[in-house]
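# nightly structure sweep
# worker-07 picked up a monomer target from the shared queue
# config: single-sequence mode, recycle default, output format = structure tokens
# input follows
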Amino acid sequence: MTDFLEWSKEEHTAHPATYRRYVTSSVALLRHFRDTQLDKITPEEVERFKTTRSGECKTVRGSEGRVKTMTRITPATVNRELACLKAVFNFAIKADLVFKNPVSRVKFLAENNQQTRVLSHIEESKYFGNASPVLRDIARLILDTGMRPEEVYTLRPENVNLSRGVLQVPRGKTAAARRLLKLTTGAKEVLRRRMTVLASPYMFPCESDATRPIPKINNAHDRAVRDSKIAPLRLYDLRHTWATRAAMSGIDLVTLAVMLGHSRIQMVLRYAHPTQKHQAKAMEQLEQFNTAQQIAEFEVAKSHSAMMQ
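# output follows
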């Protein structure tokens, strides 16, 4: 595992989140398999890890270190750990340490990725009213551009062109993630204000080390949600909210996929959730279009028939 993580750190320099994910996943893997030799790990043992891990709980501690809540480990977490183990075996196979990957014969857990939360405008006002200054700026950029939180965290001044009113997302897991976004008035105001007092390579520097970007802002987000007394909300749901509002405004799915940084249109369906009212309005527009098209075609046919006579 040590060799694998050292390799991953170098291999994923452009995608540090992948390396950090492997580091996190390695904790549960090392705890379960301990000093077991790689060639002794069978598909049955991997299945045992999957079952055992799925039944475990994680503790969430409050500001004073006391246990706040205990929640069941999600299928997504278990799958990320299985993916890490699979990557470890692929790394070992390339080094001729083992010849088979037992994880390839194990089915990953089903994940419910369809559950999304869309913020109403009233909830948005309450949320921003209780957000810290840094959270307010980050949330505004996500809600106005649809960017991923990690893309906002790692923003640099050279990625922004205020005179043109655009922002460049320079990197991502896929080529589609690298994109040029048009800035709203609110987004430009946030970036303009931050660039005037910038003393770091990043727009949102880490408090303890200005040479690095802010790692996360989950605590401030959770506090803002709690204080605003709105329904539970993840920071990532602000991206869902942007996508839903964009779809409801009439942006087509192809354009929406490009703006979200997705390589496949199917991915957009996870984020766009038009309301019943919006669907009804779309049906009315379709009916009006069909009626107008029908009248136009009959007029053309009538005119053509008159000319033939």
